[in-house]
Every structure is written in C-alpha cells, then in structure tokens.
C-alpha cells in the first residue's frame, strides 16, 4: 500500500476512482481531493500491480462520540478487471494495520444500498457488521 500525495498521482488514479464515483469528472476529483486533504486530513492510498493502480482507498482519521478515534473509509474500489483477486482484502487489511498505528480503535465505512457484492465482501470476508443506517439529504435554499 502506498499513499498518493501529488496531483500527478491522483490524476493517474482517477480512472479507478471513476468506477466508484461516476459523477466526478477528473477536474472535480482533483479539486475535491486537494480540498479534503486540507479540510479533514483525507488521504488516498493505492495498491499497484505491475506499476498500475489496481485498488484505491480514501480515508480520514476522525474522532467522534460514537466510534472514538477511528479510521473512516470514504472510498474503497478495485479496478473492475481486477476484482475477486484479493486486492480489496489486501488494501483493507493494510488500512486496518495503518489505522492501529494511528491510534484508531475502529474502522468505519458506509456503502451504498445497491452495492450488495460489496456488503457481502465486508461482512463475510472482512468481518464487518452492519451497525447503522446512513441518511442523507440535499440542502437546497429552503
């Protein structure tokens, strides 16, 4: 696992991230990664095979009353042609170790309702449990 810290590395990783965050064009992705790094300490990690990015994870170390100090995984994606080859498991396991090194006591993530394969992976392969629902609402000018 390696951390991607430069705009050039983020740009290289964009095609993989685009498979998860389909609403983002490259310019928005680069802007948001830079903004999130400043605002919340967001970090982007990658696994490579033969020099090419095959899996990505975007994370933040955070503290709240519910989880204590924890690692929040905002994104976890494996390149579509590389799935079911253990890359997601390797990356998430590396993040578990890294989170412990950062003093985290939990790993927390949110996964879209329609992503049933991802849910099976988290629960069956990685030992995660469903602990809550996440609700969202767009803020308009009301």
Q: How would you describe the overall organization of this protein?
A:
- The chain has 142 residues and is α+β, with helices and mostly antiparallel strands.
- It has a single domain (2-125), classed as Aminopeptidase, CATH 3.40.630.30.
- It is built from four helices and five strands, in the order βααβββαβα.
- A five-stranded mixed beta sheet has the order 1-2-3-4-5.
- Strand 2 (43-49) and strand 3 form a beta hairpin.
Rg from C-alpha positions?
Answer: 15 Å
Q: Strand sequence of the main sheet, in spatial order?
A: 1-2-3-4-5
Whole-number count of domains: 1
Taken as a percent bin, the fraction of beta residues is 25-35%
- The 3D shape can be described as globular
Number of helices: 4
- Mean of residue pLDDT values: 94
Q: Tell me the total number of β-strands.
A: 5
CATH homologous superfamily - what is it? Gcn5-related N-acetyltransferase (GNAT)
Content-based structural category: alpha+beta
Helix content: 25-40%
SSE topology string: EHHEEEHEH
Largest sheet: 5 strands, mixed
Please give the CATH class: Alpha Beta
N-end to C-end Cα span? 44 Å
Kindly report the CATH topology: Aminopeptidase
Question: What is the CATH-assigned architecture?
Answer: 3-Layer(aba) Sandwich
Q: Which regions have little confidence, pLDDT < 50, spanning 5+ residues? A: none
Protein name: GNAT superfamily N-acetyltransferase
Organism: Desmospora profundinema
């Amino acid at each position: 696992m390696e951390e991607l810290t430069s705009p050039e590395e983020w740009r290289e990783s964009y095609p993989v991230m685009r498979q998860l965050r389909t609403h983002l064009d490259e310019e928005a992705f680069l802007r948001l990664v830079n903004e999130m790094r400043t605002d919340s300490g967001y970090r982007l990690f990658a696994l490579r095979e033969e020099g090419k990015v095959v899996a990505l994870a975007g994370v933040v170390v955070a503290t709240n009353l519910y989880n204590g100090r924890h690692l929040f995984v905002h994104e976890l994606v494996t390149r579509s042609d590389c799935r079911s080859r253990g890359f997601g498991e390797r990356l998430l396991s590396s993040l578990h170790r890294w989170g412990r090194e950062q003093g985290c006591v939990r790993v927390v993530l949110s996964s879209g309702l329609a992503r049933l394969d991802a849910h099976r992976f988290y629960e069956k392969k990685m030992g995660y449990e469903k602990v809550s629902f996440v609700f969202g609402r767009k803020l308009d000018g009301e």
